[in-house]
Amino acid sequence: MKKNIRTLLVSAVSALTLGSSLFAQTKLLNVSYDPTRELYEEINQAFAADYQAKHGQKPELQQSHGGSSKQARSVIDGLSADVVTLALGADITAIEKAGLIDAGWQAELPFNSSPYTSTIVFLVRKGNPKGVSGWADLIKPDIKVITPNPKTSGGARWNFLAAWGYAAGVAGRDLGDSAQLEAAVKAGKDATAFPVETNAAAREFVTKLFKNVPVLDTGARGSTVTFAQKNVGDVLITWENEAYLALAEYGKDKFEIVNPSVSILAEPPVAIVDKNVDSKGTRAVAEAYLKWLYTPEAQDIIGANYYRPRDTAALKKHAGNLPPIKLFTIDEVFGGWGRAQGAFFSEGGVFDQIYKTNQ
Amino acid sequence: MSSRPANILPGFGLSFGYASLYMSLLVLIPLAGLGLKTSNLSWDQFRNTITNPHVMAAYKLSFSAALAAALLNGVFGTVIAWTLVRYRFPGRKFFDAIIDLPFAMPTAVAGLTFGDLYGYVPLLARTADAQPWTFEIYGLYGLDVRDWCRVTVMLTFVGLPYVIRSIQPILQDWDMETEQAAMSLGAGPATIMRRLIAPEIWPAWISGVALAFARGVGEYGSIIFIASNIPGLSQIAPQLILDRIYDPIDPEKKIAAATAIAVVMLIVSLIVLLLLNGLDYLSRRHRA
Asked: Are A145 and A212 in contact (CB under 8 A)?
């Protein structure tokens, strides 16, 4: 009797595990950051149809959204993501350091594993009553600026570095042009010194800027709500796609977008969580999923959702919404995320120092 | 102890076993883990973590607002409990039922609702005023006045049920004849309140206030939606714990720093709770 039960249990368990490896291997969890909700809903649908047509099996795609650093932490703490599509490289590096992603992930896919880019723009109230035309206006005493807390929000870190780069006098290039993009990538690889990091004018500018910030929300979505729904502040510094989303959601009669003269090229990267896909047997579909993001079809969806496609044809098609802005990269100006994170946003970094002098 | 004849009901061994297992799994082991993580820091690192000006400001805000909210609830919770028990009015049952709402409501929702609802009240609105209006009082020095009020009101909501639910059963079981006897002996309402009712509800009141305080110190979800969260001015301590947890540079040490902040919160909470319980103990001895 006892033996029977054991056999039964063993067969039940093996049936379960066998079943999961047979059927669940096309079930993918994409752990992403806050503003990509709408983008990946569309991507997932199109990818599922495409994959089914090619492999005869319909993948089941799930998505999870939240502040980028928080999401990274969840994955480290055991959320079994197959792929992560986060706001910045530092957050994926944190998962890599926890041993879940193999080193060298950023070289596995084209363009630093960033299938799309974005940048940082301003959202102002309709008619631009305070006459905001660029970064310089943000430190005027009667302007109130809304941006999230860079400690918890990936978007806020891009905002911060964009402002810093502007104030340090970084020129930027038209990165929609592939020759200029190549030049920027090369400059990023060759750069050895980063004087911008300690630029005194930039420090003064950003300190003044944060004096004009009345509320620091924990994420980009929270700041949008504060600005759009609660009517706090004159300018929202935010992702380009988030600004367009706010226009769509709250009405074009309420807000308008102001493009600054120069901004930062935000490259939200994607990666496979090696440990999870190997234990779940989902590597093949996860790889197909991330590679698919570079196809013309996906690039078109990306452009339609106000992210800047890497594909030049798709970028041209959506150029009406994604006008050329002079951009600089984090690699050429700040030496990449690892360095920028440590210098600016880690405990005791520039962001903490700014608030020390505020009092 | 189970062999003691004085124990009428059997089962001490079993029930004590369950109680200690339960307490160990849910409270003692996680607490020990907290201590263990913190011990990754050297004494200097620990001191630097908790004396960081932003952390100190957050402690001030978290503890003072939680205490103020608990005391507010102490006063108005008593009035509400009294009203509910002593008077009959239409809708009483309804009022009685909704008091537990703060227990059930997700606090983030509460925070958003409060933000919307009181967005027009000058002191409570998460306003567009970028210039902080700071306290000049020692102890709260440097904190933003408006944010302090906002956080306190939010914590008052979160801690509302504790005082009411602590003293309500005592008022309900109160023997009215004692009161009538006192009155017949010439005691006025004030004397009855002071000599009869207050001593009776006092221990429960203390524990209700203590619970509301403890609840307020740890609250996070609603506060981040209603406070401005500016470092050094209006950030609560739990937020600084999260900041450190999300810091990808040197995560081991940052998590140790996060637990260090938490350990200090625990110790201060424990001291406040002991003080409150000590107050109860003193008053009992005084009466005995």
From this structure: yes
